[in-house]
Amino acid sequence: xxxxxxxxxxxxxxxxxxxxxxxxxxxxxxxxxxxxxxxxxxxxxxxxxxxxxxxxxxxxxxxxxxxxxxxxxxxxxxxxxxxxxxxxxxxxxxxxxxxxxxxxxxxxxxxxxxxxxxxxxxxxxxxxxxxxxxxxxxxxxxxxxxxxxxxxxxxxxxxxxxxx
Length: 164
Known about the structure:
Layout: H1 3-12, E1 17-21, H2 25-39, E2 42-47, E3 51-54, E4 57-58, H3 66-78, E5 83-88, H4 101-116, E6 120-127, E7 140-144, H5 150-163
Parallel strand pairs: 1-6, 1-7, 2-5, 5-6
Antiparallel strand pairs: 2-3, 3-4
Helix pairs in contact: 3-4
């Protein structure tokens, strides 16, 4: 199964938290953005220096802290008829077993609420590596995001050449 279809299927099945392990954050965000468009979902992206953004514009006042960002995302998920993908780019630093448990608890609460309250939302953590803490093991689905294959590189080169 190709990766885009796999991610899309997990999102449609309302898997609450996906973790994409990759050093290629930009490439992963581009693929997630395309999936969000295809599914007609709003795409919110969080990182620790900008807070929550939509289409590159910061939308969450005081959302630099992960807990505040998760609170903001839950408020957006509660909105009637909203369909959302929340991407967290630096969250892996806050979710280790040795980090503050408040962050892991708040993420678990959001995951539980996505399932139990029927929110049409998903969380995706994009990280170069991810240590799954014991209290998050049942909430997280890991997705490998390998380097591009030879065919993908060839396709990108051909697209670039053809555009010139």
